Amino acid sequence: MKHTTGIHHITAIVGNPQENVDFYSGVLGLRLVKKTVNFDDPGTYHLYFGNEEGAPGTIMTFFPWSNAHDGEIGSGQVGVTSFVVPTGSLSFWKKRLDKLNVENGEMNRFGEKVLAFDDPHGLHLELVEREEGEPNTWSFGGVSTKHAIKGFAGATLLTGKPDSTMTVLEEVLGFIRVAEEEDFVRFKSSASIGNTIDVKKTPMVSGRMGSGTVHHIAFRANDFNDHEEWRNLLEEKEYGPTPVVDRQYFNAIYFREEGGILFEIATDPPGFAKDEDPDEMGKKLLLPPWLEEKRPEIERVLEPANARVLEGDK
């Protein structure tokens, strides 16, 4: 049976792009690894944050619109995105969030202490300590490599048909059911990060896309051949996958599972150093070849959005 190693990336819709960068880079210390545009809407940024290399399993991506209407979190979405930090780091992160006036709270789930908070546009986020996962060698502002976010811990799925969603996770994507606690079922994959999916067993009211909601969650394909095998499998199981889409830094296919969540399968290669020096990633606007001739027009409509150290860290 095929299985994905885990989460490749998670993509969300947010508001003002500089506020987005200030939070994920300035507050959370993630690297802005790629500043490009939404290929389907070139007047909008597509911003990618992750570890120093922008490795699969670390990438949170955003479509920021300053005038976007507020979304509603509900069924058919990722309800919570969880990041993993080194063991012993939660006290640092609580102090940091308190210092930067980010409201937060502690809870326990599946035997793990969790620090929960929202980003400025309403996305529900969590930090959890785990031994597994390679350290992040990127440091920024007040976040050193000792405490830096390693990547994803996992995600919580809100679905209109929990049994159907769990069937896809187990019987199509190859996750293993490992635990059940109150209203959640936990599934794991083989990767050391981005390996945990929790599914809420109770259907919620349907969500509405907009600022503060997750657009889709992507799972990993090892390479281009593996990706084609995934597409064939999804066709055989009648999930109606899209044709392969070239996203420059990975190839993608999409399908919507019966619970309403948009799933993507994305290739690990070629990665974010494809079109710029690894040391320079995220510093300038990168466009795909077919949009390069429109650069002046695109740059004219995009608002400034740059990684910068926050005043509280100077």
TrEMBL record:
Annotated coiled-coil segments of the chain: none
SUPFAM superfamilies this protein is in? Glyoxalase/Bleomycin resistance protein/Dihydroxybiphenyl dioxygenase (SSF54593)
- Transmembrane feature ranges: none
Q: Where is the VOC domain?
A: 6-130, 151-268
Alphabetized, the UniProt keywords read: Dioxygenase, Oxidoreductase
Gene Ontology terms, MF aspect: dioxygenase activity
Is Oxidoreductase there in the keyword field? yes
Q: Which CDD domains match?
A: PcpA_C_like, PcpA_N_like
Q: Does the keyword Glycoprotein apply?
A: no
Q: What name has this protein been given in UniProt? A: Ring-cleaving dioxygenase
- Per the UniProt record, the source organism is Guptibacillus hwajinpoensis
